[in-house]
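User: Need the bound-state model for 6CS:
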Amino acid sequence: MTAAVDLYPTRRQDQPRWHERIDPISYRRHDREAPLTAQQIDQFERDGFLLLPNAFSAEEVAVFRREVERLRSDKGILASDAAIREPDSGALRSLFAIHQSSELFARVAADERIAAKIQHLLDGDLYVHQSRLNLKPGFKGKEFYWHSDFETWHAEDGLPRMRTISCSILLTDNSPCNGPLLLVPGSHRYFISCVGETPDEHYRRSLRKQELGVPDDASLADMVSEGGITAATGQAGSVVLFDCNTLHGSNSNITPDPRSNLFYVYNHVDNLPVEPFGADTPRPAFVAERGPVTPLRIASQRYQ
Ligand code: 6CS
Ligand code: FE
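Assistant: Bound-state model below.
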């Protein structure tokens, strides 16, 4: 295979650099069939994320939470590589590939309330690049340090272009106190290359605590002074859509209440991974789908 052109170099130099984003943010304008308003598309374009309060009902959230409990007590799943532990306490932090281990969560991935919106924004067929359940348990859930997801997916998985959107479905109320997702509006417009070389099997460490592939302090300070920080708080059932290059992170959860969410990453079918741009070997399939893929069949779903 000939090497693909690297439009977003990272983890190769000893100084961080900013690159202008080359790719569109929303790939399609508003039109009459759009499942988003013109204002929502503009907001996504401007901020790099969009909040959809109460997209799922309390009854649906209850169904999702029962499924979470079922997965969490499945010994096979807990013993697999897809189960990621907290760095200090060993409590369960994340479960990956839930669209493969759970029929219900496979259906949720195709739910038109989320997938049709993302299909519009990315203008075409989608598949799930990554899915996970993030638990952030009360008292024990540790932070996720600031990062751009695309930086990791480009360097370690070989995603060539920014044509990827993440969707987080809140399974518990996210308050300012229990470690909600924090986003930097406008940061999706620049790619900050990071310093440091990717070690072998970096994901085993980074999924518990990410220390490499994170922007330098000066770049972060600049981005935040420009755009500020928005906490994606909301009731359970609310949804956050965010661009693959929007800087985000979250604090530890020292409250008694968990902050759990379901997380899906949708990629356009024309943007399949190639060889990693900043690592020797690609990550395993449970963290990053490598294809061949079948486009998602988006449908109206009801859960009970
Ligand atoms: O590795 C991933 O795919 C995701 N997880 C972490 C901790 N950082 C990058 C990305 O969000
Ligand atoms: Fe992330």
